[in-house]
Specification:
This protein has about 650 residues and is an alpha/beta fold. Helices cover about 60% and strands about 5% of the residues. A five-stranded parallel sheet has the order 2-1-5-8-9, with helices on both faces. A four-stranded antiparallel sheet has the order 4-3-6-7, with no helix packed on it. Strands 10-11 form a two-stranded antiparallel ribbon. It is elongated and about 85 Å long.
Length: about 650
């Protein structure tokens, strides 16, 4: 027997050992049905949040199921082999998860060279690197990727946050489980300890969550999301081999779960339909309750005894989708982001069906040619007759991904949809003898400008800002696609507080930025005012008058208004809000109305539209990407914009 044959035989033997250790759980088709329900909920939510506002809870179903299955797997292995083989477990997880992730990352990074804003490509490269090493949740949390953000260009890898949470769980939880089993001397008190940890995680979420504030911290955090994984782990510790409870007690749990599983499943579906990220209590114990409901469905789906829920979840369409649900989840969000309503010129259900079909095809191909062969046979599964070729292919894919990630930030290819780049010659600037205080008021756009202010270039200007992301200067809630968007308490508080901030700083110029929701329909006194109508215009003019009065009463020497620029925001689901944001004619009409108001009120209206949108929308200014994400100025473009803005503010402050 040759050395090669011996090596091949040893490899096959190791593969058989791994299979015996990690594929020993009886196949339960109902669990694949749960996966299908969860991934469908997430897809519908991402395709159009209005269709299923609580569909994001499908991720929580995945978490509970993962905690249950991983704990069952580890405790079953311990019961059969007398120990938990951590190395073998981690290698099995790597074979199951990494190949499909690398494939999706290769596709997304490649598409990023063509379909991502140039200024956003460095961020996408960082997203890809974080996703590759399963740190995406903390990466997004420490960055600017709010999960529930409706405006700004979303990362096509934002969904990788949940896989990062799971992988961190797979890495750390087995170590914790081994330690607990040694300290506790078995599984008798394991369920109590795991339950206490789940409650601790839920309490951490409650303490860190602040209603009305962006919930990304508690949504992305591994510490706050561990409750769902640990809830599934508690279930497994009660029902797995070596369980501290008697066989008769396990039978009673199974019987009870099968009886209540159908109402529990209906309750889960109701949560998908009714729950929103702003629903009271959802981050204050609600997710733990949702996890308990999921546990009841999992027990019935995994039960050896028949029940209506097990039969329903074992149906062939759901089971087949559940088998490829991992790949489906990986592919669905990049497909939705890149093939959005704006790019495809399709909307609503037609667009969603196309996105679903493409996601289904990609995930089926991924499962057939990548995930399944490697999970069963390792890297040699790609090329069974040439095992080394599989290893070389994997190494080549990893190297290629690393090279693409390194090259992506330096790519300057323009995104389709913009005209030739804008060229702007900055005027000369002579600093004044007296320093002037400037205050920028508005949402995240003036915030991005304040952050990019080159103080050394304009030493006579001191720039402050009082801004609140996503908030408008007026009180009426906007109406998007016929749905009133409730105003958060944080926005109401900011609207009430900005005059006091102006009074404290007493700026020479208070510059108020118009906001894009002024293009939307609004609700006033229970009536919807259509954008562009006489009533809508009258309301906005009245609000502008009130802002002038508030600023003057607060001690601002001068007030000025910045009009809107043109944008090409990614419009994933074709909402009326983003459609109007991208409508140059609607923006121009609003700007004309505000200019007319400014003449009558004696308030200067600065015309950034005339600067940035001459000849249409532009991707770049002086060869530099104009917007970091389609909406906000980057550090470089903001500095160029200040060369236009600073002289005007200097003149207004001097009363010229």
């Amino acid at each position: 027997m040759t050395t090669t044959a011996l090596a091949r035989g040893a490899t096959l033997e190791r593969t058989r050992h791994r299979a015996s250790a990690h594929q020993s759980l009886r196949y339960r088709p109902g669990l694949d049905g749960i996966r299908a329900v969860a991934v469908l909920a997430v897809f519908v939510f991402h395709a159009n949040p209005r269709w299923l506002p609580g569909g994001w809870l499908g991720v929580d179903v995945f978490f509970v199921l993962s905690g249950y299955l991983i704990t069952t797997l580890l405790l079953t292995q311990r019961a059969r082999l007398g120990r938990i083989d951590l190395t073998d477990f981690w290698l099995a997880r790597a074979r199951r998860l990494l190949p499909a992730v690398i494939l999706v990352l290769l596709a997304v990074v490649t598409a990023g060279f063509f379909w991502t804003y140039a200024a956003r490509r460095a961020a996408l490269a960082g997203d890809a690197l974080a996703a590759w090493f399963y740190a995406a949740n903390w990466h997004f949390l420490l960055g600017d990727e709010a999960y529930f953000a409706a405006v700004a260009s979303p990362s096509p890898l934002r969904h990788m946050w949940s896989l990062s949470v799971e992988e961190q769980f797979y890495l750390l939880y087995p170590l914790l489980l081994v330690l607990l089993l040694r300290l506790l001397g078995g599984t008798r008190r394991l369920a109590l300890v795991l339950g206490a940890l789940a409650v601790t995680s839920a309490l951490t979420m409650m303490l860190l969550y602040h209603p009305g504030i962006d919930p990304s911290r508690v949504y992305y955090g591994t510490d706050t999301r561990a409750q769902e994984l640990l809830t599934g782990a508690v279930l497994a510790s009660l029902l797995s081999p070596g369980s501290p409870i008697s066989r008769s007690a396990r039978i009673r749990i199974d019987d009870l779960s099968r009886r209540v599983a159908l109402p529990a499943l209906l309750a889960l579906v109701a949560c998908f339909t009714l729950v929103h990220e702003t629903t009271p209590g959802v981050f204050e114990g609600g997710l733990l309750a949702f996890s308990v409901l999921t546990v009841l469905v999992v027990v019935a789906a995994a039960s050896p005894n028949a029940s209506p829920v097990r039969r329903l979840l074992s149906a062939q369409p759901l089971r087949r989708l559940g088998v490829i649900s991992y790949g489906f989840y990986l592919w669905h969000w990049p497909v939705i982001v890149f093939l959005d309503a704006q790019r495809m010129h399709l909307h609503g259900l037609v667009l969603a069906v196309l996105q679903f079909a493409l996601t289904l095809a990609l995930s089926a191909l991924s499962y057939r040619f990548v995930e399944h062969p490697i999970r069963i046979r390792g890297l040699s599964g790609w090329w069974p007759r040439m095992p080394r070729l599989g290893l070389l292919s994997a190494l080549a894919a990893a190297v290629l991904l690393a090279v693409l990630i390194a090259l992506l930030p330096s790519s300057t290819r323009a995104v389709a949809g913009g005209t030739d780049g804008l060229q702007y010659a900055a005027p000369s600037y002579t600093p004044g003898a007296e320093q002037r205080r400037i205050m920028l008021l508005g949402n995240s756009i003036p915030f991005s400008l304040a952050a990019s202010f080159p103080a050394g270039t304009y030493p006579d200007l001191a720039v402050d800002q009082d801004t609140n992301f996503g908030c408008d200067m007026y009180d009426a809630p906007k109406v998007v696609d016929g749905q009133v968007q409730p105003t958060t308490q944080a926005c109401r508080d900011w609207r009430a507080s900005w005059p006091a901030t102006v009074a404290a700083h007493r700026p020479d110029v208070a510059l108020v930025f118009l906001t894009h929701p002024m293009l939307d329909d609004i609700e006033v006194n229970g009536r919807v005012l259509t954008a562009g109508s006489a009533e809508h215009t009258a309301y906005l003019r009245g609000q502008l008058d009130q802002m002038v009065a508030s600023a003057k009463d607060s001690g601002s020497a001068h007030l000025a208004v910045m009009n809107l620029a043109c944008h090409r925001m990614p419009n994933i689901v074709g909402t009326s809000e983003l459609t109007r944001t991208n409508d140059d004619a609607a923006v121009g009409a609003l700007n004309a109305m505000v200019a007319d108001w400014g003449q009558g009120a004696g308030v200067p209206v600065l015309d950034q539209f005339g600067l940035l949108c001459t000849g249409g929308y532009h991707d770049t200014i002086n060869g530099i990407p104009l917007y970091a994400d389609g909406l906000h100025f980057s550090t470089e473009s903001g500095a160029i914009f200040w060369s236009w803005l600073a002289p005007q503010l200097q003149a207004i402050a001097a009363g010229r």
